Structures are given as structure tokens and as C-alpha cells.
Amino acid sequence: MFTTRADLTVRQATPDDVPALLPVLAQAFSTGTVAEWAVPETADRTEVFTGYFRYMLALGLSDGRVDTTDDLSGAAIWYRRDETPPPDSDHLYGLEEATGRYAPKFLLLDAMFEARHPRLPHAYLAYLGVDPAVQSRGVGSALLAHAHEGLDAENLPAYLEASNPRNRDLYARHGYEAGLPMQPTSSGPPFWPMWRGQLNGGVRSSFPPPNPYYRRPR
């Protein structure tokens, strides 16, 4: 179980919040096995993830919803997904421009995530990041609880990809069920697809069947 902090207010972010949220997300995601795999050069990581999240925050604000806390110590980028999203070639160019010579690995992650994505309407948590200085203090749980309140009112399922066991366990405490892990390459870092189903008679629906077009890497 989890405890929601009463001293944190969650609200929808605006473009004025981007200068404060950008370093929060860049720092939160520029450490760990995924960052080391995506950007092997340590000296480049902060710059690359800053460019990446400048682009992702812009997308979230225009096409999805970005939640943040009143102290701007964390952010969550959500999207509503129908069965199959329309193709967007501009996204590939934007991602390449944001990540430079490291774009091939970011594009590979995008392709893997899309191939495994459930093909039914749901809310998609693309990113959740917390300032490393205040991690493990309930900021992530506050962001999740706020979003889930609205989703539960609609009885809408949610989906995400957890990038490490610690995050996977956090999401499990918030009602997500983990599927079989996926890897961008045979030596790449594992990600766990996670599903928070609809409530039917007090019981959440189980993980949807795997996308038949997904193939595990060899």
C-alpha cells in the first residue's frame, strides 16, 4: 500500500512551468541502466536528456496532459490512447533532432513500446519523474493518486512501462499488474509493461492479451 502526502497539491502544468520541470525530468532519467544503455558517454547524458525532455514536455503539453506538484518537484506526462494512434512522421524527426547521434536507440525504444502497446482505449503514462533530491518521499505516489482519481471516475484503464524493479514495485502498489519484460535488444535493459485495469465488481480487469505483432528480440 501507499500513503498520499497531504502537503502536496497536484495540478496541471503550463508552458510557464517548463524551465523548472525540464531539469527535474532530465536529472531523474539520466541515471540508471536505461540511461547508460541509451547514452553510453557519461559526459553527454545530461545534455541529451535535457533535449529529449524539452521535446517530450512540448508534446505532452500540446497533445496530452502534464501533471506537476505545487513545488514543481515532479512531473507526469499522460496521453489518452485509442486502439491505434495515427502515424506521425514528424515525431521521428523531432526525436532525432532532440537526441542527436544517440537517436537510433531512442527510436528503437519507441518502436518497441509501440509494438507492445495494448490496442484498446486507455490512459498512457509515458513518463513520471521526480527530483532526485526528494525521491522516495511520496511525490511520485501523489502524482499517481491524482491521476488515478480521475481515471477511476471514468473507469478507464491505464498503461505504462516500468524501467527498473524499484519503479515496477511502486506501480504495483498503485494497482498495476506487470507483464513479461521486454528488451530493445538481447543485451538491452528490461522494461516491464504494466496495466491498471478497469474495476468490475471491485476487481480490476487483468492484463490484455499481448499484441500479436510483437516479437521478442533475438
From TrEMBL:
Transmembrane segments: none annotated. PROSITE patterns: GNAT. CDD domains: NAT_SF (cd04301). Residues 62-199 form the N-acetyltransferase domain. One of its GO terms (molecular function) is acyltransferase activity, transferring groups other than amino-acyl groups. This is GNAT family N-acetyltransferase. It comes from Micromonospora terminaliae. The lineage of its organism: Bacteria, Bacillati, Actinomycetota, Actinomycetes, Micromonosporales.
